[in-house]
Amino acid sequence: MEAVVRVLESEGVDTVFGIPGAAILPLYSALRTSPIRHITVRHEEGGTHAADGWARVTGNVGVCIGTSGPAGTNMITGLYTALADSIPIICITGQAERAKLHQESFQAVDIVEIAKPVCKWAVQLKEPAQAPWVFREAFRIARSGRPGPVLIDLPVDVQRGDCFYAPELDGPLAVEVPDPRLEPVRAAVDMLLRAERPIILAGGGVIVADAAEELRSLAEYLQVPVQVTLMGKGAFPEDHPLFAGMAGLQTQTRWGNAAFLESDLVLAVGARFGDRHTGDLATYRRGRKFIHVDIEPTQIGKVFEPEIGIVGHARPTLAAMLGQAHALTRARGAGEWTARVGELRSTLRRRDDFDETPIKPPRVFREINEVFERDTTFVTAIGLYQIWSGQFQETFLPRRYLVCGQAGPLGWEIPAAMGVKCAYPERKVVAVVGDYSFQFLMEEIAVAAQYNIPFVIVMINNEYLGLIRQAEIPYGMNFAVDLHYGEGGIDHVKVMDAFGCPARRVERPEEIAAALRWADEESERVRLPVLVEVMVEREANAAMGPSLDAIKEFEPVPELAPLAD
């Protein structure tokens, strides 16, 4: 385990998240003499999400540690979340002795088989001599191609073993950065030049590849408007003249949907065409051609067949496209299409200046945009508050807007924000949460308080399970149980007080900005998480529909009738 710790250090890991237990103590013993900081979390799922947040903001591999049995099963949600969003993390689990694995020993579970469907690689260490090499390979696999999670299971007797290891002779394994073939790159640029209304769609792969500069250079040279997916938010500054909004069913802008529907060519880079982005594929594809760039070959054609598919890492692919553009044409000036996108942006924006009480959610995000600086890192999870966040929050820099996109586990945002702050203590971190999601892993507030990890929590509270209730209308769902939530619910200000952390409740729109500024200052002053709970209109819905051309504001959800006998 001393060799394992040396590998972790040399791979750039400075913080790990975990919970000790009997079956993992040899590894913890080796960590005692390491400069790696260990954050003891309250739940292994919280540990995986913290490692996830650390990985998203650094671009390096996050690490979570747990003991045997339920520690590993508690990590499964975090592994799935990382796999879905292409985030490199390594989960390390303790295990019973090898000779006891077939005897139903205490907390002996085949975690490797359980984890395989939600990992790039799941492996059990069989011999002490494998330790440094298995861990080197784990880091290589986590980083390679489409990044993702790895689980390593460590039987306790293997952990106690000895191995020969010379750290001065060892180092990280090479990670291939695949360059694209020139032929499809040339064809794609030629198609871009011939299109009348092209757009570039930047997905999360642009951020994972650190390719924002290459994206911007190509867009500016050819004057092609750029849209982002939810996972790609931050890949292109939203105040740039070429920013064309977001298209989608939920996290979208009206003018972004309109611009997408008027386009005739889409260059999608590092985007997987998720169903909450595309909606009805007939509407999404009608009247336009597609070029799909992805580092993972099997992603191309998975949802629909593009006219051109390009396999390659986003950064060298965009650089190669810019090189071809230089060879084929001079830098272009803004034309009719960019002017049209600007017109849509100025005429189809949603209101966010509501003064009514109860507070309308768009007003909260208006204040968030005005109070917090451009380089603030925002963390959010899943629910109506995430949809409003995607619709209204402005983002300008890569790795400053973190969201659990495809898996959408409730409770993700608090431990993820903690991981972000551990990675960059000097950065301002704001977690935008819902009241229900906050309660999933609110015990991790105690961890942030214990280690003096300060960040701001903005809670959008409608006390209503709003997204679940809204889903009944457009999707024809009917509740089979009584959703009894909200009446006599938790007092979140008192919850924060119990953790020793400051909190305020806001019920009027004119109070929001002052409360956010207070939380920002107070969090850094006391070095603790600080909560601003904003009570919003209970029946407020988010605009969403079954296809891009059917987005509308739904009527308030009616009160549910009691179930019949």
UniProtKB/TrEMBL annotation:
This enzyme's EC code(s): 4.1.1.47
Molecular functions (GO terms): tartronate-semialdehyde synthase activity
UniProt keywords, alphabetically: Lyase, Thiamine pyrophosphate
Domain (Thiamine pyrophosphate enzyme N-terminal TPP-binding): residue spans on this chain: 2-113
InterPro entries: DHS-like_NAD/FAD-binding_dom (IPR029035), THDP-binding (IPR029061), Thiamin_PyroP_enz_cen_dom (IPR012000), Thiamin_PyroP_enz_TPP-bd_dom (IPR012001), TPP_enz (IPR045229), TPP_enzyme_TPP-bd (IPR011766)
Entries under SUPFAM superfamilies matching the protein: DHS-like NAD/FAD-binding domain, Thiamin diphosphate-binding fold (THDP-binding)
Top-level lineage group: Bacteria
Keyword Lyase: yes
Enzyme type, top EC level: lyase
Residue ranges occupied by any Thiamine pyrophosphate enzyme TPP-binding domain in the UniProt entry: 382-525
Record domain Thiamine pyrophosphate enzyme central: where: 185-320
PANTHER family listed in its UniProt record: GLYOXYLATE CARBOLIGASE (PTHR18968:SF14), THIAMINE PYROPHOSPHATE ENZYMES (PTHR18968)
Family named by the database record: Belongs to the TPP enzyme family.
NCBIfam families: PRK11269.1 (NF008431)
Protein name: Glyoxylate carboligase
